[in-house]
């Protein structure tokens, strides 16, 4: 004898409803596909020349000799992420064991160390003022630590929890000031947060899977950023409205890293399909692919040199490949790490670049001579 | 039992007795033999059970139809039908307190997928409600928790309706978003590849001399020679800048404004031309856009007073359409309210003042004075390492002077390591 209130209501129209739903779904699918192919057609119409053709008149690059000038040892486990300070010599890095370390890379001294309450700190960023760092990972949060030189002060005590996602934090970046942070997460969204109040200012929906990376545009209006995800798409977003302005889907696997070309008119992406690609925002298409048959391991991170002529890519086969952006050829291959390269950034004034690896170390490299 | 039909004007008790004998919903009747008579009877225990069940049912009806309700009505106790958002908040709270009933984890994750776009709102609401409830007296808290739990046991959305609506959201949403994005993208203006790609070669050529990796840097790359002279010479405020730096100001307006020293020089020039208010206005707008949320209203007020109000001390010249739009927006100030006006002034300076600055005596003198550092001769003993000196951390500099509105100032202090790092 079941009490009356526990009997579930009957929904007799379920059967016909389902049929209707399936029809609408099919219709939406076809509309989406048609629009996509129309878009590709439009994009192809204005593509009248290839990048390497335009670059034929540019002088070729000589041989590079790049040497490791600093090796930063101190992390007890895989280094996952790093960022430069605006003073061109300090670095913050984070690792799998939950440690976040701030180094003066020039002297190789460790200046600050924080232990996060979670492991796999996949994202870290230096504040533009140099007074704070942000980091996060498996705790689904992005926390900001103000840096204090008082030896007695426990950095973890001043921690401020800013962002809150429903899955792991994959990347974070301060915008033009210490007051706002942009984050991307495994829950498929990116979000803009106000640091002071922890309030969500804007969220960005459109990726169909985990978002792995993001980069802010160095443009005059300073209002856009690009994100790359496991759905093989790279999306360009408007920070004010939250809308996706442009979308590029030519990679064959997860996009691990995106970085803007210094002029802000294009961006490069590195993916698990072992290629780096260059996308032009005004032409609205992919304009170059940097790949070689001998390279079969995925790219974990990319960055441009100051003039945008060189593209550095850190690969999972422990090497760094240096590409000539204009001609599309590989200029150099660098060795040194004993495990996969997980993160790579060029310093703010372009004098050197730093790589972090699963071999627990960070290396700062600079050109010794150009023959 | 003689009363088995509802006579006219029957009392509540008679209604009950009649219901008790209902073959479907009533009690289980048995026949008991008493000597030779067969008497229909019911077991005492079953009698109690039946009553209890019906009493519970009546009680539930009373709650459901609102005859009984909690005194302090939190927002989530909305009347039937309850919104799935509230149910999501309830489950989120349980999840946070780690009391999630195992059997409804599936419902929770289904809901999550479905209202993913408002999930941050859900989580925040849950946290808020938990925080608010902590402030109540323990007795009240327990009572409210029991009520909430009972409410949701009754009113939780049944799994079947979840799945049909789930189809709509889960399946449709990604396609709808994709269609929207594609439609917008089709409407874009595209530029021919030849023009775009040409700009890359131009850019690389222009910046080649400034790229330390390509061309080296003077006097020497600090990472190679361990000499920080290059950084000292290029720190934010120096008496005499390097030639490369001053040249870079002529590449684009953005380069000029991004360099602290360049911006200061430009301000000096504008003051001579009596149009310095443009740059001040632009800077104030940047401060609003990137500053703390809490200070936006007061900053907008300041900007209005100083730059936009009729008869303002430093009135900026904006076209009437933009001015009207901005003044309208100021009534409800938000972070981006000054955007249109700021853009207008930015392009005004870029098209007018900036080119004139580059042709001015002020800039030309600066370029002439600028130093070209001597390249450090490579030392005879390349293995002898110079001592690497530390530099003051930007964090330390900031703790001595309180940071203003989060502007990127600290980086400058770190560069002025005059005593510390430059001597061999």
UniProtKB/TrEMBL annotation, chain A:
Any Gene Ontology biological process: signal transduction
Superkingdom of the organism of origin: Eukaryota
PROSITE patterns in the cross-refs: WD_REPEATS_1, WD_REPEATS_2, WD_REPEATS_REGION
Chain ranges passing through the membrane: none
SMART domains named in the record: WD40
A Pfam match: WD40_Gbeta
Keyword Repeat applies: yes
WD repeats: 72-113, 162-203, 204-247, 248-289, 299-333, 334-364
Stretches assigned to coiled coil: none
Keyword line: Repeat, Transducer, WD repeat
Keyword Repeat: yes
Membership in a protein family: Belongs to the WD repeat G protein beta family.
Assembly mode: May interact with RGS9; this interaction stabilizes both proteins and increases RGS9 GTPase-activating protein (GAP) activity, hence accelerating the deactivation of D(2) dopamine receptor-mediated signaling.
Protein name in UniProt: Guanine nucleotide binding protein (G protein), beta 5a
Organism: Sphaeramia orbicularis (orbiculate cardinalfish)
Lineage start: Eukaryota, Metazoa, Chordata, Craniata, Vertebrata
Gene: gnb5a
TrEMBL record, chain B:
Coiled coil: none
Start and end residues of each RGS domain: 252-367
Listed GO MF terms: GTPase activator activity
One protein family per Pfam: RGS
Biased composition annotated in UniProt, kind: Low complexity: 390-403
GO biological process: G protein-coupled receptor signaling pathway; negative regulation of signal transduction; regulation of G protein-coupled receptor signaling pathway
Alphabetical UniProt keywords: Membrane, Signal transduction inhibitor, Transmembrane, Transmembrane helix
SUPFAM superfamilies named in the record: Regulator of G-protein signaling, RGS, Transducin (heterotrimeric G protein), gamma chain, Winged helix' DNA-binding domain
Highest taxon of the lineage: Eukaryota
Amino acid composition bias (Polar residues), ranges on this chain: 414-424
CDD domains cross-referenced by the UniProt entry: GGL (cd00068)
Region of interest (Disordered), ranges: 385-424
InterPro entries: G-protein_gamma-like_dom, GGL_sf, RGS, RGS6/7/9/11, RGS6/7/9/11_DHEX_sf, RGS_DHEX, RGS_sf, RGS_subdomain_2
A GO cellular component annotation in the UniProt record: neuron projection
Residue intervals passing through the bilayer: 34-52
Transmembrane helix listed as a keyword: yes
PANTHER family: LP21163P, REGULATOR OF G-PROTEIN SIGNALING 11
Protein name, per record: Regulator of G protein signaling 11
Source organism: Sphaeramia orbicularis (orbiculate cardinalfish)
Biological classification of the source: Eukaryota, Metazoa, Chordata, Craniata, Vertebrata
Gene expressing this chain: LOC115437276
């Amino acid at each position: 004898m079941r009490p009356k209130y526990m009997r579930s209501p009957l929904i007799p129209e379920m059967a016909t409803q389902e049929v209707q739903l399936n029809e609408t779904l099919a219709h939406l699918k076809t509309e989406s596909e048609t629009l996509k192919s129309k878009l590709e057609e439009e994009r192809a119409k204005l593509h009248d020349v290839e990048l390497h053709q335009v670059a034929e008149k540019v002088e070729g690059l000589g041989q590079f000799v790049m040497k490791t000038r600093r090796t930063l040892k101190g992390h007890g486990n895989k280094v996952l992420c790093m960022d430069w300070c605006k003073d061109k010599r300090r670095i913050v890095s984070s690792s799998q064991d939950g440690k976040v370390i701030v180094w003066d890379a020039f002297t190789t001294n460790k200046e600050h160390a924080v232990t996060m309450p979670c492991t796999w700190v996949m994202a870290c960023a230096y504040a533009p003022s140099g007074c704070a760092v942000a980091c996060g990972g498996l705790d689904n949060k992005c926390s900001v630590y103000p840096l204090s030189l008082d030896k007695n002060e426990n950095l973890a005590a001043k921690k401020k929890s800013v962002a809150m996602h429903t899955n792991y934090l994959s990347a974070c970046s301060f915008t033009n000031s210490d007051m706002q942070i942009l984050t991307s997460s495994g829950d498929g969204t990116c979000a803009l947060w106000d640091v002071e109040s922890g309030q969500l200012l804007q969220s960005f929906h459109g990726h169909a899977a985990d978002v792995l990376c993001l980069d802010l545009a160095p443009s005059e209006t300073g209002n856009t950023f690009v994100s790359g995800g496991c759905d093989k798409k790279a999306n360009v977003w408007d920070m004010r409205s939250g809308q996706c302005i442009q979308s590029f889907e030519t990679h064959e696997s997860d996009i691990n890293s995106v970085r803007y070309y210094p002029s802000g008119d294009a961006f490069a992406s590195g993916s698990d399909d072992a290629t780096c690609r260059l996308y032009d925002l005004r032409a609205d298409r992919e304009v170059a692919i940097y790949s070689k048959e001998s390279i079969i391991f995925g790219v974990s991170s990319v960055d441009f040199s100051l003039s945008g002529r060189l593209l550095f890519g850190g690969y999972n086969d422990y090497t760094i490949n240096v590409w000539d952006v204009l001609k599309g050829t590989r200029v150099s291959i660098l060795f040194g790490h004993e495990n996969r390269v997980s993160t790579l950034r060029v310093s703010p004034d372009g004098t050197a670049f730093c790589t972090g690896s699963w071999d627990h170390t960070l290396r700062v490299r600079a050109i010794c001579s150009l023959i | 039992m003689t009363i088995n039909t509802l006579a006219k004007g029957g009392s509540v008790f008679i209604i009950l007795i009649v219901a008790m004998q209902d073959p479907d919903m009533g009690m289980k009747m048995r026949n008991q033999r008493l000597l030779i008579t067969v008497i229909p009877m019911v077991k005492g225990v079953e009698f109690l059970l039946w009553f209890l069940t019906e009493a519970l049912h009546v009680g539930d009806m009373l709650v459901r139809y609102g005859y009984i309700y909690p005194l302090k009505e939190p927002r989530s106790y909305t009347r039937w039908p309850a919104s799935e958002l509230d149910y999501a908040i309830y489950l989120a709270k349980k999840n946070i307190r780690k009391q999630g009933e195992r059997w409804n984890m599936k419902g929770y994750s289904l809901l999550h997928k479905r209202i993913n776009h408002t999930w941050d709102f859900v989580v925040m609401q849950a946290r808020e409600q938990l925080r608010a409830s902590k402030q109540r007296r323990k007795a009240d808290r327990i009572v409210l928790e029991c009520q909430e739990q009972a409410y949701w046991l009754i009113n939780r959305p049944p799994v079947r309706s979840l799945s049909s609506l789930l189809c709509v959201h889960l399946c449709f949403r990604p396609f709808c978003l994709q269609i929207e994005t594609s439609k917008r993208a089709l409407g874009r203006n595209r530029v021919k590849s030849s023009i775009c790609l040409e700009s890359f070669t131009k850019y690389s050529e222009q910046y080649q001399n400034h790229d330390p990796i390509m061309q080296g840097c003077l006097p020497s790359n600090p990472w190679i020679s361990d000499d920080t002279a290059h950084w000292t010479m290029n720190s934010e405020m120096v008496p005499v800048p390097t030639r490369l730096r001053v040249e870079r100001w002529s590449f684009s307006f953005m380069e000029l404004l991004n360099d602290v020293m360049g911006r200061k020089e430009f301000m000096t020039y504008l003051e001579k031309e009596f149009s310095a208010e443009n740059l001040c206005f632009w800077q104030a707008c940047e401060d609003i856009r990137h500053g703390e949320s809490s200070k936006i209203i007061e900053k907008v007020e300041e900007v209005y007073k100083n730059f936009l109000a009729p008869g303002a001390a430093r009135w900026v010249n904006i076209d009437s359409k933009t001015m009207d739009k901005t003044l309208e927006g100021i009534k409800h100030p938000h972070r981006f309210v000054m955007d249109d006006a700021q853009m207008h002034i930015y392009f005004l300076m870029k098209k007018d003042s900036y080119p004139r600055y580059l042709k001015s005596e002020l800039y030309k003198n600066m370029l002439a004075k600028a130093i070209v550092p001597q390249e450090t001769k490579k030392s005879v003993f390349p293995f002898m390492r110079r001592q690497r000196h530390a530099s003051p951390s930007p964090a330390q500099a900031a703790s001595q002077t309180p940071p203003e509105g989060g502007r990127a100032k600290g980086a400058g202090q770190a560069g002025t390591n005059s005593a510390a790092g430059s001597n061999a």
